[in-house]
Design goal:
Serine Threonine Protein Phosphatase 5, Tetratricopeptide repeat, two-stranded antiparallel sheet, 20 strands, globular, alpha+beta, 11% strand, 23 helices
Length: 616
Amino acid sequence: MRKLINSIKIFILFILTTGYLTSCVDFFNPDQGIDITEEQLYSDWYEYRAAAMGMYSLQQDLVEQILVLGELRGDLLTVTENADQDLMEIYNFNVSRGNKYASPQNFFKLIAATNRMISILEHKHPSVTDMDAPINNYDRLYGEALTMRAWAYFNAARIYGEVPFIDQRFSTVESINEFLESPTAYTDSILIIYGLDGYSNDTIRNQEVVLERNYFDVDRTIRHFAHELETKVKAVGVNHYMDNEDNSWEVTIWSQWSYETLLGHMYLTLGDLAKSAQYFETLLRRDIRGDDLRYQLTDAFAEEQWMEIFKNIDRREHILTLEFNKQNQQQHSLQRLFLPYGGNDYMLKPTSASVHYFETQWRGAQYNRRTNPPDSTRTINPGTPSDYYRGFGISYVYVNQNMEVPDIFTMLEYKRLEEPRSVESMMQGVDTIVYKYTIDKGVFESDANYIIYRAGGVNLYLAEIYIYWRFFDESTNSPRSYYQNALNIVNNGSYYNTSNNRDQLGVRGRVGLPGFTIQDDVHVFDPFTNEFSHYYSLQNNLRGKQLKLENELMEERARELAYEGERFYDLMRVAKRRGDPAYLADRVSAKYPAGMREHIRSLLMDEQNWYINYFE
């Protein structure tokens, strides 16, 4: 991507997408002394690509906001004593209108830029709207813009609960704000309707248009933009390989792969499991010949190689990744938020619950499980604790003021032996920090790539769907649930091996963890000692088994996808599916001090408080 266009064309795009456009006639602000029209500018393919690069730059500008709102409101991230006022407001679920993380302006900028690209393509290349016309690069670019716009609306709706529908004629953030701030219905003084061939000299009339402000909630946003993607997109993603000889290009732009993932994600959020599974299955089961088993959880990122997911861009795992590069002045503020050294501010850190998700996983344990009587079950060998391929040293680290790292295995052994004083002494003065965005990075680089979608997350989405999947069993002439598919996806990948004969490992299998089991007799073991704790029965209790597996998958998402921006929305989705706001309220409120916990829980029992009510 970086070799695609030169700096002059990037500058053209910067002007295009940062709000200097004034009308559908003048391209640049006349006050700048430049008189270039759209007709003059969009005469070369690389000018379109420069404009597209500007849209991706605007998408990069959303990274910090998306991560903070998706994680700090969840159960995996909390504030430090250094947190600024904006972060404290997010943490306290008491957000002021001036909070920088609450502002929709970066969403408006991206929506305005995509509106403009879509309108120009429809005008200058009207074949993009003809689903039967041959596919060319303008169609692929049109698909990129439509998909990016849908993604922007989808994320905004999840944050705000409802978002204003912005007519496509609004192609600057100034015009959007003017529309939203107008005390009455907004009147657009110019409407140009082109003839069927799309040329400007076929204009048939001008007229005033009155635009009413219309707000879409989450469900309506999904339905509207999913329908638009399914009916207007012919292809997604321009092939840049001939220009840059870089195989990673197609996961740094919107492509057919990420298009399918976005639709699957939107339908999962909507609760349409059948449509969601359709898109995820298409993505994960597409036949890829050769040794490039794309989005298959093989040994490519197994065990100690798992951290490579965050060091490079690799199309075997990455579906859509926003690429940052310090040399191109592409940086973000994530290290500033997370690191306590190198001039960074250390304002956010992992919660205790987040760390416990990793440190209460056990390998190599042996048990003597019994059901008669059930309380005679015993742990023979507790095994070794810690999800150490994804946890300590990768997703998070411990450091003290001398930058020394404590011996985590010694500390975990003290916990197993129930020696709290030894643990407390060892961890005195130790900070816990998010490390996922610092792997292989200097403290001043701040340019780790930001992953929006990747294979591990999508496999867990599909497993979640199969918990509740029902099919008609002809042998019993009745519907039947088949949550075994979920286990086969997450445990060892055998769900795929049966049809493709691929060497699958599954989400847990590729990091060497034992699989989940769902049985009638449930034996519970202490998370820190792995000794037998208690027993309960799920015999003839399908709902109980589904809820247990869903809980375990949500914990697995916490380990696989910690601090990647989706945690709060994972909790929202499950709470809505269950019709139980306490699912979210209990988990989030647990991270607060005792004096705040009940207040936060009470606040989050009201679903309206899950959103930032910016547009009220």
